[in-house]
Every structure is written in structure tokens, then in C-alpha cells.
Amino acid sequence: MKFDESWSVGQVDLDWIEATSAPVHPILAEIEAMAEPRRIPIVSRAVGRALAAMAAGRPRIVEVGTAYGYSTLWMALAQHTDGRIVTIDPDRERTDLARAWWRRAGIPDERITVINEPALSAIARGHPALVGPFDLVFLDALKDEYLGYLEGLLPALVPGGVVLADNVLWSGRVSGARPMVAGRDDVLGLRDFSQAMLNDGRFAATLLPVDDGLLVATLRP
Predict the structure, then answer these.
(1) Cα–Cα distance between 172 and 169 in angstroms, integer?
(2) For FRET with 68, which of 28, 96, 119, 193 sits at 20 to 30 Å CA-CA?
(3) What pLDDT score was predicted for residue 180?
């Protein structure tokens, strides 16, 4: 079916989606209110809802990049009550705040394991919490390290498991819609990562223009 090519998503559409979606959990709204003035990077609500939809029915998740635990909470709330998440972030101050929010949202401590180390180091040394198996991998940390994260975690991903990666458009810089900042490796890293995933026959992968770009890839059985 061909749609009207003169139309593109606008604020009215976004407002309608927000109005018809389930209300945001009050703890998620609280994290949003704390993160914005402090410029703490968290995913958008649109990405959060996508994460929740993918996390439902996937009991074992690993996340690279915790920050305030906003995306972690979207996934934990969507999982069954016996679901488990391992999340990696070297900033203990942030993850301590995240833990407090998770508790207030009713998520028991045993459901979320926090690794306070640089992700590549934790993966390379074979941290016992990263042995897996995992049903979903979510990447949202240093952009030039996405490929390294995936290569290290791929052996723990089950067939049919999903990889999600945020910010793959990087505000238009990856596609060339906006100029790349000199001396930054994140754009090149994201380009290499996306191209590698889209051309890897082990995955069925696509890039979705959700917020700042979301890569979705399923490991073929």
C-alpha cells in the first residue's frame, strides 16, 4: 500500500501516540525529570516503549550503559517477575541512584545485577555475570565501542536472541545529514557497527528511525 509521500510524522502524530499509550510509570517520569536538567543521557520514551515491547517474554537481558537506570527499568517492568537483567556502567554514583529508583518501582535487588566497570574490560575478563545465556542485548554506552561490546557478548546470545542499539543515527551525523565533529570516533564507530550488523548473515537486522536511530537485529536460529 502506497501512502501519501508528502506526509511525514509531526507533533500531532507524536502527541496522539503519547495520549493513546499506557501511562508512564511514575518512577520513570521521576527519572526523566532528574535526568534532563543534569544532562544525563537516557533513552527517549519512544525507545523505552520499544525496549519494553522487546523485553516482554525475554527473561535474560544484558545492558551496556546504565546511567540512571531508566532503560533498565523499562525492560524490568516489562519482564516477567522472574526476569533477570545484567547492566554495566562504571559510574557507581549513578547506578546507586538507579538502584534506589528500581526498588521504589518494586523491582527486587536480585533481579538486576550491576557491574561497575568499563564494559569492554568486564567483557574481556569474562565477568561471571556475563556468561549468559542472554535473550536480549541492549547497547547504549560508548558509541565507538559498540562492535567490541557485541563481539564480546555474542557467544552468550541465544539463537533467536535480539540485539538493540540506541543512537545509531547520532543526530544525523552517521548518515551525513549533519557534519561530523572533527576528532570524534563515535560517528565512524557507529557507521562501522551498523554496516557490520546489516551485512552479517547471522542476523536479520534493520535500522529504525525511532528518535536518534534504533538498530534491531535478531540472531538467526
Answers:
(1) 5
(2) 193
(3) 76
